[in-house]
């Protein structure tokens, strides 16, 4: 019996050495989770149970459990290096077989898909629709689309404008005061805004503000120095048609009107713009078009106070063709492509998996795990949702192995092995003594 007890102790100590050695070997493995050998004692029993004076039969290995504690997050400078700060696993797809990992060393293959280090499995997440909205709920292979961002024609322009209430009135009934964009004396202030046509060509929209009364102003809108239809504003037959802004006694905008149309509460609208170019004073249509919905110029934030006539930086929703310049990944796992036209577009979002019993996962190598019956089925969601952790881009999660503790455990396992070997040696000596007595 003592031989079996000693042998079980040797086996247990050997397994402890194996587990500790494996932990030490993976001290520098990204996303590695240390293991712990767990033992239990063994008793022999009959159908009626064990007696009060029963001697144990040794020890057995009950389980090798994984310790899913957080590893340190270290910076790498590579945008596709990702660490999970908190709970959750990256989801990898290898030809329909899903695995789970904490090792965020990813790269892009020749087709633009985000894969693990050896390129055999693709990172899973959520795609985007044509408008750039994340399509949550359906896992897909994440892909970095490097194609150009198509241009978008301007449909809306907005800004905050103050018109100086103390500015001089310009009497346009006087011939010399008739509006002329080339004569600064015929207008109070000029504001310029870049806008774009359907082909991504940039044009300059100029608004000329003319004070015509105590609480009235007129605004003339030209594009590329021409009327929106491309005609020359200097020609009497095609003189620009102004819009009239009316303010109340407190300097707040009351209405905007453009003859012959009705009064619009706070907007100007350009419906007849034909994009073109001007070369040597000759205007030529460029083959592009304006937005079918026209260009709406929001004037609601226009005031007439006793302060300098000025405007905030205008915003408009059009842009030229853009080429991808870099990629960023935020804490919620959204992949944001930055383009040369100063636009930012989401191209996907990383999904994380969670399990009811993480220690029930089956290690499959490559710092990956597989789902088992004991682990429970995975739940998928975006990072920072519920108990899921956040994504740290340009970073990796280091192994959670505590080298100092492992070295101490190594000494303990060695001592245990020697002690159990001594048990067998002592039993052998006793057996020899008994044999010599006969």
3D architecture notes:
By secondary structure, the protein is mostly beta strands. The protein folds into three domains: 2-69 and 400-437, no CATH class; 74-120 and 332-397, no CATH class; 156-316, Sandwich (Tick-borne Encephalitis virus Glycoprotein, domain 1), CATH 2.60.98.20. Helix content is 13%, strand content 34%. It is built from two helices and 34 strands. The chain has helices at 2-25, 403-437, and strands spanning 35-42, 58-66, 73-75, 82-85, 89-94, 97-101, 107-108, 114-115, 122-126, 140-141, 156-158, 161-162, 189-196, 202-211, 216-223, 243-247, 253-257, 263-264, 267-270, 276-279, 282-285, 295-298, 302-303, 310-311, 315-316, 324-329, 334-339, 344-350, 352-354, 362-365, 368-370, 379-381, 390-393, 395-397. The strands form nine sheets. Strands 5, 6, 9, 10, 26, 27, 28, 29, 30, 31 and 32 form an eleven-stranded antiparallel beta sheet that branches. Strands 13-14-15-16-17-18 form a six-stranded antiparallel beta sheet, with no helix packed on it. Strand 5 and strand 6 form a beta hairpin.
């Amino acid at each position: 019996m003592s031989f079996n007890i000693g042998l079980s102790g040797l086996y247990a100590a050997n397994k402890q050495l194996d587990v500790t050695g494996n932990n030490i070997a993976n001290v520098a493995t990204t996303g590695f989770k240390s293991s712990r050998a767990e033992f239990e004692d063994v008793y022999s029993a009959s159908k009626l149970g064990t007696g009060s004076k029963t001697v144990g039969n040794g020890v057995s290995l009950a389980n090798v459990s994984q310790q899913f504690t957080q590893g340190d997050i270290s910076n790498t400078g590579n945008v596709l290096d990702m660490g999970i700060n908190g709970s959750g696993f990256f989801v990898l797809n290898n030809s329909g077989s899903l695995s789970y990992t904490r090792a965020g060393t990813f790269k892009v293959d020749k087709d633009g898909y985000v894969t693990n280090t050896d390129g055999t499995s693709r990172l899973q997440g959520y795609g985007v629709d044509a408008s750039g909205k994340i399509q949550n709920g359906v896992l897909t292979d994440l892909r970095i689309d490097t194609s150009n961002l198509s241009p978008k024609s301007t449909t809306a322009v907005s800004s905050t404008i103050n018109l100086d209430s103390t500015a001089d009135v310009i009497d346009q009934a006087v011939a010399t005061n008739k509006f002329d964009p080339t004569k600064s004396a015929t207008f109070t202030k000029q504001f310029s805004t870049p806008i774009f046509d359907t082909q991504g060509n940039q044009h300059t929209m100029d608004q000329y503000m003319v004070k015509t009364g105590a609480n009235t102003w007129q605004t003339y809108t030209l594009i590329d120095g021409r009327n929106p239809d491309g005609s020359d504003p200097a020609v009497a037959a095609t003189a620009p048609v102004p819009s009239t802004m009316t303010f109340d006694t407190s300097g707040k905008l009351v209405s905007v009107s453009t003859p012959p149309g009705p009064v619009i509460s706070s907007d100007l609208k350009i419906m007849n713009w034909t994009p073109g170019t001007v070369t040597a004073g000759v205007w030529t249509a460029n083959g592009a078009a304006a937005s079918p919905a026209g260009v709406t110029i929001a004037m609601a934030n226009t005031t007439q106070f006793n302060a300098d006539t000025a405007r905030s930086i205008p915003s408009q929703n059009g842009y030229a063709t853009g080429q991808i310049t870099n990629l960023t990944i935020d804490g919620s796992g959204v992949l944001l492509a930055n383009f040369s036209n100063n636009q930012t577009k989401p191209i996907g979002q990383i999904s994380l998996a969670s399990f009811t019993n993480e220690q029930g996962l089956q290690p499959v190598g490559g710092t990956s795990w597989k789902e088992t019956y004991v682990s429970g089925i995975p739940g998928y969601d975006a990072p920072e949702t519920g108990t899921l952790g956040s994504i740290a881009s340009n970073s990796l999660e280091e192994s959670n192995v505590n080298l100092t503790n492992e070295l101490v455990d190594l000494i303990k396992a060695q001592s245990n092995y020697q002690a159990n070997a001594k048990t067998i040696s002592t039993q052998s000596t006793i057996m020899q003594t008994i044999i010599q007595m006969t």
